[in-house]
Every structure is written in structure tokens, then in C-alpha cells.
Amino acid sequence: MDDKILAASSKHPKPVDRVFQYGTAGFRMKANLLDSVVFRVGLVAALRSRKLGGQTIGIMITASHNPPEDNGVKLVDPMGEMLENSWEAYSTDLANAKDEDLLKVYKGLEEKLKVNRETPARVIYARDTRASGPALVRALVDALQATGSEYTDYKLLTTPQLHYLTRCTNTEGTPQSYGEVSEKGYYEKLSEAFVRAMKGKKTVGTVTVDCANGVGGPKLHELVKYLKKGSEGGVDIKIINDDVLKAESLNHECGADFVKTKQRAPPTSKAGNNERCCSLDGDADRIIYYFNDPEHGFRLLDGDKIATLAASFIGDLVREARLSDELKIGVVQTAYANGASTKYVEKSLGLPVACTPTGVKWLHHAATKFDVGVYFEANGHGTVVFSPQALKAFRTKDPESPAQAAALETLRALADLINQTVGDALSDMLLVETILAHKTWTPREWDLTYVDLPNRLVRVEVKNRYLFKTTDAERKLVEPQGLQEQIDALVSKVRDGRSFARASGTEDAVRVYAEAATRGEADDLASKVAGLCRQEGIGS
Ligand SMILES: CC(=O)N[C@H]1[C@@H](OP(=O)(O)O)O[C@H](CO)[C@@H](O)[C@@H]1O
Ligand SMILES: [Mg+2]
């Protein structure tokens, strides 16, 4: 194997002057820099699979909402979760090894982690629609062959589909089987669960889905074939921005990130007033809803609004199913969640809120501490996870009334409809459609549940963002010294003020967030805190 790894790695030399890091969402950068990184991620996957006794590891090649010329790669653990934290550092070490040291570093990891070379290594992988994908797959395959790994190429998939397949592969034939190990199995599971969740309910009008000209387009077209039209148990979906042939159109003036950051609909959307619209990102793991209100203009229904909608609906069902005493429901957010949403969950829904650092892996982990854990980043990445106790209770609780029986049936359907491995735009869309149908709500009624505090996110370029160190789920700075006190002083002067600064995990910048009772105060606070950070950043 050593000779094979050496020979293969010589075809994928590392750019000499580059330092790589497994960040919030794996490795992500300009695609032309990624060849050696993807090759080495293949080596990590082989190590990880062997370390876990031959369980299958997933690899997704995507750069999500980034521009078309970027690409990226991330690893998926056997139950479909993000790669375990400590392995991010091993991946980083291997990605940064000099070509001549690569084998030494690989064998060093093998030894340190007590990996048995005789254990089989198994990997599945897929990619999004970027033009750079196929060449990167070839680099990956070279690593998998050199390490004697068994592998399956699932070609084009959304990121959550690859997470789904990873879990299905590892649970196949066991009592915990997550579903049929195929793309078709994914559509069947979702569409069947949707019909059950929608029993006796109807969606109203159409939902316009902007697919960011990414892999979500062809996959949603596929899913639609399995769904009924908008009669009982169905939904009318109008797909826009589904052109995957024009490479440069990916995420261009469309997609979840565009809508969230620009606070406007994609120019291609022709949806009328009050019509439901949503946007996926380039690998379909994020979703944002929105609509045009004839009086107030564009209205965003972001990840916070999806989380509160899901928590309120599932909370009601758990009560109707008489399971409130045995199941703990909670919502997990990050510091970027709008303060009004946090207040709404705690005060109006009466549910606890946990706050974690940015990055889905932290939210997911915190959500598993609840029996029903609802987590979403404000940008639309999230899901709902159910504990084994919750799933058992949904199955075994004896209903004493038709209403209780119906609630239990809906809960069982939701557990199948909602992707348990990771945020999934297609599954989340069907969840939102289900809830709105049950509540007979238009997007306007959903929007009115609470009013977002005006807020502002500012990107501040500094010389060294790593000087900005935080605590308390990134809500407070411990370094540079004294800066937090200055921020606190500014915040105390505005009504409902809140502000924090942290180093981005995906860009070379510090992000400043501020919110306050009025637009003017929020903007002013953000710009003052950004000013402080800029000053601190100078010369550091
Ligand atoms: C404020 C914000 O939206 N941050 C994003 C962004 O992380 P940063 O560490 O803030 O760059 O990219 C992450 C990965 O996609 C995503 O999880 C996160 O929510
Ligand atoms: Mg994404």
C-alpha cells in the first residue's frame, strides 16, 4: 500500500506555498487549488473507515453557496453526521504535509490512531454540479484505490442526500435501518412520509422554489415525480433557477445566500403578492422562505422563522399526543439568531433555547440533548432531530382519543419526513408546507408570529482575525483585551441592543452583528462596533 500511496500522491502534488484548514464546512477554496486536498481527504476517509471497523464514510465534493469557480470537500461520519471534531485536525495535518512527508504523516496517523491496515475501508461519495467536480473525483479515486478502499460513486447528489445514503449504508439490514440505500429510496421515503404528514390537509396555491441553478434543481424535479399535485396530501411546486448547464449561473443572483444577504427575491422570480417562495443554496442543504407583502414589500422568513414554526407545531403535537411529560423539546440557535425569535421561543412557546458557536455541527450536537431538538442557523441551515425515546414514544403510546391518535400519526410521519442526519432543503421545504397546511396559514400569518428586531451584519477586514478570541458561544470577546468592555458600553446606550464580534470560520474577516429596537440604532451600533474592531485590527 505504501508504494501505491507514494505513486498516486506524485500525481497530486501540494501547492508549495498554501496552508489548508478543515474549516466550518470542510475544505473550501478556488477549485484549481483543491486537487491535492481532495486526494488527501481520500486518505483520511480510508483511515477513518478502518478505524471504525470498516463502517462506510461519506465524502461530498461541493462549495455550497460559493461562486462557481470554487469547490470544496467534506467528510461525513457513519450515522450521517459531520466528521468528528478531532479528525478535522488530522485532515488538516494530512492536507498540509509536504509531498515528501506525506507517507510519513499518513503512517504516523495510522500508528497514533491504532488503525489496522487489514480492516476493510469503505467510502461513498458524490458531488454537486460544478464543472471542477469530475477532475476532483479522479483525485479522490486515486487515493481510494491506493489505500485499497471499496467505494461507490453516487455522482450528482445534494449534500443531504449523501448524508442520508451514508446512514442508510451503515444501518442496512439492522433494526435501525434508516431507509433504502439508493437515491430512489430517498425520494420514496420523503414522499411517503409527506402524504402521511398531510393526511386530510391541503396546501393552497403554489410554492415557487429557486434552486440556485445548482444540484437542487434536477433533484427537486426528481422528487416532484413522487409527490402528488396540490389536492389532499399534495403540493404544487413551481421550479425556477434550475439551469445546471450554464456553469456561471450557479448561485448568481439567486439562491438562499443571495436572498438572505441582499434581502430581496431573485430577479427571475415572477411570484405574485402573498405567494410562498423559497430559495435553496448550491448543494441544497439550506432553505429560506419569503414572500411579497403588498403593504410592506419583501418579507423574509429565515432559519429563525422556520425553527419557531417547527417548534410551535411539533410542541402542539407533542401536547396533543400527551407526551409533554416524558419528552423534552428545545430549540438550538447561534448568536446570529434574531433576539425577537429567542424571546418568542422562550416566552410565547415556553421552550428552552440553547445557544452554540456558529457551524451546524455544534447545533446538531446540542439538539441531540433534547428528545425533540429543533435547530436552525438564521441563514436557513437546520433540521429537527428526535431521540430514540421520542421515536419509541411515537410508536408505542396508546391513544385514548382520535385527536391523540392523529397527533401521534403526524409525529411518526414527521420523524420520517425530516432528515435526521443534517439540514436538508428539500425535506425542510416539505416540512414547512406540511405545517402551513395544518395551520391553514398563509406566509403572512407565519410572518406575523413575531417581528424581527432590525439588525445588521458587517464584515470587517483586519490583519489577523485570529487575534479575536471569544467565549460564551462566541457572544463575548476575551481578546483583544478591553474590547468587550467598549462594546458593552455602546450596547448599553441603545434600546434592545445586542452586538458581538467574532472571527469568521470560512472567510478572512471578522463579523460584527448588531440588533436594536430601531433600524437607525442597529445600523449605528453595528458601524461603531465595526469601527472598534477595525481599530484593534490595525497593525495586529
Ligand atoms: C454568519 C453566518 O451566516 N455564518 C456562516 C458561515 O460561517 P462563518 O464562520 O461565519 O464564516 O458559513 C458557515 C458554513 O456554511 C455557516 O454555518 C455559518 O452560519
Ligand atoms: Mg450548503
TrEMBL record:
GO terms for molecular function: magnesium ion binding; phosphoacetylglucosamine mutase activity. Substrate binds at residues 377-379, 502-506, 511. Its cofactor is Mg(2+). Its EC number is 5.4.2.3. It catalyses: N-acetyl-alpha-D-glucosamine 1-phosphate = N-acetyl-D-glucosamine 6-phosphate. Residues 56-86, 102-172 form the Alpha-D-phosphohexomutase alpha/beta/alpha domain. Mg(2+) binds at residues 64, 281, 283, 285. Binds 1 Mg(2+) ion per subunit. Pfam families: AMG1_II, AMG1_III, PGM_PMM_I, PGM_PMM_IV. Pathway: Nucleotide-sugar biosynthesis; UDP-N-acetyl-alpha-D-glucosamine biosynthesis; N-acetyl-alpha-D-glucosamine 1-phosphate from alpha-D-glucosamine 6-phosphate (route I): step 2/2. Residues 198-288, 302-441 form the Phosphoacetylglucosamine mutase AMG1 domain. One of its GO terms (biological process) is cell wall organization. The active site is at 64 (phosphoserine intermediate). InterPro entries: A-D-PHexomutase_a/b/a-I (IPR005844), A-D-PHexomutase_a/b/a-I/II/III (IPR016055), A-D-PHexomutase_C (IPR005843), A-D-PHexomutase_C_sf (IPR036900), A-D-PHexomutase_CS (IPR016066), AMG1_II (IPR049023), AMG1_III (IPR049022), PAGM (IPR016657). Keywords: Carbohydrate metabolism, Cell wall biogenesis/degradation, Isomerase, Magnesium, Metal-binding, Phosphoprotein. Belongs to the phosphohexose mutase family. Catalyzes the conversion of GlcNAc-6-P into GlcNAc-1-P during the synthesis of uridine diphosphate/UDP-GlcNAc, which is a biosynthetic precursor of chitin and also supplies the amino sugars for N-linked oligosaccharides of glycoproteins. This is Phosphoacetylglucosamine mutase. It comes from Hyaloscypha variabilis (strain UAMH 11265 / GT02V1 / F). The lineage of its organism: Eukaryota, Fungi, Dikarya, Ascomycota, Pezizomycotina.
